[in-house]
Amino acid sequence: MRVLAAMSGGVDSAVAAARLVEAGHDVTGVHLALSSNPQSFRSGARGCCTIEDSRDARRAADVLGIPFYVWDLAERFRADVVDDFVAEYAAGRTPNPCLRCNEKIKFAAVLDRALALGFDAVGTGHYARVVDTPSGRELHRAVDPEKDQSYVLGVLTGEQLAHAMFPLGDTVKTDIRAEAERRDLAVARKPDSHDICFISDGDTAGFLRDQLGEAPGEVVDTDGQVVGEHDGTYGFTIGQRRGLRIGTPAADGRPRYVLDISPVDRRVTVGPREELAVGELTGVSPRWCGAAPASSMRCSAQFRAHGTPVDASVAVSADGSEVVVQFDEPQEGVAPGQAVVLYQDSRVIGSATIDTTRAAAPVPS
């Protein structure tokens, strides 16, 4: 097969490309230039898309003896990922830019271009597995639960999965670094990137403040009493406990958490932990990793990249535009804008963007 290997300049994508070559595929490496003004150097283990990253990717391709190109997708990345991220926070939601990047960039813009150029598939260093079955191709969790990235791939459609390859899904991370050493890949000891790739210093609130400007407002309790002030609602997310800048302690002395974010009146509402409990959510714009499921099903639901899946019942609307997820047990920290990814055992069924949540019924005293 002719395979386009996405090479970020990190150890995972380099080993993934090496495995594709070793498997006998006709491999071409490509580095995605996603920043219009890349940094000269990485900041510790944060960020990516630096000049050094592109050079590391090129060196790895040279070791593997494969053609290598750099594709400039900075404008598309800015529009589909960065601008979307800023707009979501401005609206009081909590987005996941990694899902958006996989949906809009790696498995849309890149895959579309690859197929147009005659490639059969795109291979990446994601930790996930693609399993071929008599009924079609399925997306599954990786063998290494600590590195599993199936959550951020839950936006892929069946057609995209048909042209996706994840060579690392059956391996643990420590083995990948050892393999990179054996293959003489210079990135073997390179630190992993963390957090949000386009916020290299990890200061999300500072990045959003630069983009949106200061928009000061009040922090209030559930009775509407002002207990603090803030510089912008975009600095908060549902379930947040630290950095609330509360000047008045709770009467009972217990910690308070962000319960609601209202950008329109610039208010952040805080309250006790038990008021975070959510029993149901509505997700919009569902995407299925294969055929759409029946109108209802039992499954597990995950709403954070490294969160614990929880048992739930799911109902799909008649027109397929919404899903309603009811948790068997109340969950905390479920925020609009996040993705809910649905699983059956290790298989990814699909995902949706959380639109609204409903509080869990109070526990009888």
From TrEMBL:
UniProt domain tRNA-specific 2-thiouridylase MnmA-like C-terminal: residue ranges: 280-354
Keyword match Iron: no
Site (Interaction with tRNA): H126, Q338
Cellular localization per UniProt: Cytoplasm
Superkingdom of the source species: Bacteria
Keyword tRNA-binding part of the UniProt annotation: yes
Gene Ontology terms, MF aspect: ATP binding; tRNA binding; tRNA-uridine 2-sulfurtransferase activity
Residue ranges of the region described as Interaction with tRNA: 147-149
UniProt catalytic activity: S-sulfanyl-L-cysteinyl-[protein] + uridine(34) in tRNA + AH2 + ATP = 2-thiouridine(34) in tRNA + L-cysteinyl-[protein] + A + AMP + diphosphate + H(+)
GO CC terms, sorted: cytoplasm
Entry-linked Gene3D superfamilies: Adenine nucleotide alpha hydrolases-like domains, HUPs, Translation factors
GO biological process: tRNA wobble position uridine thiolation
Binding residues for ATP: A6, M7, S8, G9, G10, V11, D12, S13, L32, G125
Catalytic center residues: C101, C197
tRNA-specific 2-thiouridylase MnmA-like central domain residues: 207-271
Keywords: ATP-binding, Cytoplasm, Disulfide bond, Nucleotide-binding, RNA-binding, Transferase, tRNA processing, tRNA-binding
EC number of this enzyme: 2.8.1.13
Pfam families reported in the protein's UniProt record: tRNA_Me_trans (PF03054), tRNA_Me_trans_C (PF20258), tRNA_Me_trans_M (PF20259)
Described function: Catalyzes the 2-thiolation of uridine at the wobble position (U34) of tRNA, leading to the formation of s(2)U34.
Similarity-based family: Belongs to the MnmA/TRMU family.
Database matches in HAMAP family: tRNA_thiouridyl_MnmA
Name of the protein described by the UniProt record: tRNA-specific 2-thiouridylase MnmA
Source organism per UniProt: Haloactinopolyspora alba
Lineage of source species: Bacteria, Bacillati, Actinomycetota, Actinomycetes, Jiangellales
